[in-house]
Amino acid sequence: MGLVPNLAVVAAHPRLLNLIGSLCVGGVAAAMALGLPALDRALPAERRPPADRPYLVGAGVRLLPPEGALLDLTATRPGPRAGAVRFQLGAVRIVVVAGPFSGDLAAAERRLRRKITARRGVQVTGPQAPTSTDAGVPGLSGGYASPGRIGRFQVFLHRGIAVEITVSGAESDLGAVIDRVDASARSLAFRTGR
Description:
By secondary structure, the chain is α+β, with helices and mostly antiparallel strands. It has helices at 3-12, 14-42, 105-117, 171-186; strands spanning 46-47, 55-58, 61-63, 70-72, 83-89, 92-100, 123-132, 138-146, 149-158, 161-169, 189-190. The chain crosses the membrane at residues 20-39.
């Protein structure tokens, strides 16, 4: 019975109805504005992926994560046509990007070199060298340097999908983990049937 008179009062005063509706919408918006960021901060930004299960990068490309690496969820975006994943192995950052590419392997390597050298203070060091995955997909690799950091890059091309791998860190950190990173790169697998 207490509800009926209240509804009658509200119905008799449309502005009151608008006020109550606005307060409800404002309350929901405030809860989302405060609650979602708090929830986001409460969730971990990194997690350890299973080292024995291939991780989907995107565009049908998978690889085994480097042993002991953490997956950086803030910079990982797998997708059906393209994707990116970032691993952290101590102080070493590993970024893998996969997506469509219409050129040849040499053009894919030149594109990656341009991306690397477009960053301030970064220069490619030495010549490129051939490499390949465990499945025999050919690739090219090289190195780069910037103040306080060094890096390695690899690029692979298979049936119109290019995979770019960049690895960077301090020289001593990178030297300690490069074998695990190379093993991960060799594990690259491309979806068949494209």
